[in-house]
Specification:
It contains 15 helices and no strands. It has 269 residues and is an all-alpha fold. It folds into two domains: 7-127, no CATH class; 138-268, no CATH class. The radius of gyration is 22 Å and the shape is elongated.
Amino acid sequence: MPAALPAAFVRYAVALDAVELAWGYLHARLTAEDTVELAFLRRCDLGTEGIAFERIHRAGASVATGRTAELHAVCREIAPADEDGDGCDAGRIWDHLAGCRRADHGDRTVTESRLAAGRAEFLLARAVPGRGMNWQEDSALLGTDRPEEVDAAFARGEERVGVAVIGLALTHPSPQAILPRVARTLERALAADDAGLRHQGIVALAHTARLHRTVDARCLALLRRCPRDTEADMDLWAYVPRRRLPWWLWWHRSVGRRWRAVRRRLRRD
């Protein structure tokens, strides 16, 4: 039997349904602790729509003390009922995840075509129509884990895509996954003269600078076209190595600010 998979891997690789999560626990693809963690994360993703995930999360309240009977019982209720309802084989997603994990560890027997097919079915096909997240609740979108959810939201023209980009900046471990979506947010905002979306892109960039201490040239070029003294200006200056920052931000944060202070004093005098 494949080894149990860590929640930190699963949360970014697929958008789990409740039946799949329950099945994974019942068939030892997840530990009890990781099952409860993923249930909480998916409940956050879906907001008020995540009732089944909330049941799993609540049932796992005693897992930390070694008691798993309630969690097991709830998962038993959820998995068979959903499987009978839609005819899906909940184990297939776990076979895909196991293959992804083996590929990450250098197993060349897992083909690219197999990985691509699983990603298309268990991630992209759920992201495109918006199934993976609740796009009506800001609180849910602030937990956005998967860049593919954001890409699909841009394609659909979701009103709250900027909130999801902020969520991605707060939760995703790789700035290489975050920064292109931040840039896309700023590009769209500047093209549409959308001050609200622009501010969301700026906030996402600020979080990325603070959490990952990095930025890229594309985001800097777009930020230069935005108003100064924003959250991104301040966090870039505070957290990103100064040698990586452009001359215009140096000027604004040092020479420019001092010159403006002098001018204000002269006006008062």
